[in-house]
Hints:
alpha+beta; four-stranded mixed β-sheet
Amino acid sequence: MPLDRRLKRLWTYDDLLEMPDDGNHYEIIAGDLIQLHVEGELRRWTCADLLAAPDDGKRWEIIDGHRIELTTPDLGHATVVSNLLSQLLPLRRAHGLKVFTAPLLVFLSEDTMMQPDIACLLPDSLARLTRDGIDGAPDLMVEVISLGMRSHDIYAKREIYRSYGINEYWIVDPVARSVDVQTLREAHYREKGFSGDDTLASPLLPCADLPLAAIFADLDGIED
Length: 224
């Protein structure tokens, strides 16, 4: 029976070998099935390659040399990002937190570049701010799950962020109206979920007070 990519959560290379050949090229990254973009031949990308390439109007990430096209966020996604910014910006003024939002490039290595929805740096962060983006690991990365990128946001990015020592990763789900806070402890993420009438609590930002009602405000006013 053909594998159903919509239902498969964590892929293995055995799964990939059993897939019918559909003419595309795939890679397994952190349990996520990633379709590779091939231009003439299969190649490995570096961050420098992508910066030097002509602007094609698309949004790309590079994970371990593989270029991955990101989907275009919808209005619900943009609403949640805006709400999060309004909650985080007071911390910038009161506690010296640096807050950045997409479009934003974060360079984690020569061949890994991410585009988070929000990245935050504490005052003692070792990451460098450059004209092209953030060079090094931010203290906090926030991803609002996008349509068509759910597995990528939840599984692939979590593993990448863990492996590069990002202290905290928030996975924000506009459909479930929930937030999973992943906090790095002894090289592994410890997860705590928030939903309903909860107020998000962050070990990294103990001064934060983020009611989920404020994070997901105004979503009901958006028509399907």
